[in-house]
């Protein structure tokens, strides 16, 4: 097998942190590009809270900022400089977005 692109979906969980070194090792071994992907699911507003005081655009912005910062942190702390890395933030259902991204980008 010869990999040129490797996708690493992450939800920032302990399990994904555990798996990351394996993806990095594969990227190093095959001189492949490593793409870190995180998917943000849409915020669903429960009917009971539709008239509440929550500002959903602010919450979405905070979630996006957290995800972007977390992806950058993973790259800075866990991926060597000699690994070509790409960071992708997607929106939607994780399984669907990851599969779609992988197909569209031949990953």
Would you mind describing this structure in some detail?
By secondary structure, the protein is α/β, with parallel strands linked by helices. It has a single domain (5-104), classed as 3-Layer(aba) Sandwich (Rossmann fold). 48% of the residues lie in helices and 19% in strands. A three-stranded parallel β-sheet has the order 1-2-3, sandwiched between helices. Strand 1, helix 1 (14-30) and strand 2 form a beta-alpha-beta unit. The longest helix has 23 residues, at 56-78.
List keywords for this structure.
alpha/beta, Rossmann fold, 48% helix, globular
- What's the total count of β strands? 3
Which of globular, elongated, flat, extended, rod-shaped describes the shape?
Answer: globular
**Element order, helices and strands?**
EHEHEH
Q: In whole angstroms, how far apart are the ends?
A: 14 Å
Helix content: 40-55%
Evaluate the radius of gyration: 16 Å
| Sheet with the most strands, sense and barrel status | 3 strands, parallel
Number of separate helices: 3
Q: Determine the CATH topology.
A: Rossmann fold
Question: Biggest sheet: strands side by side, in what order?
Answer: 1-2-3
Beta-strand share of residues: 15-25%
- Uncertain runs are none
CATH superfamily: HUPs
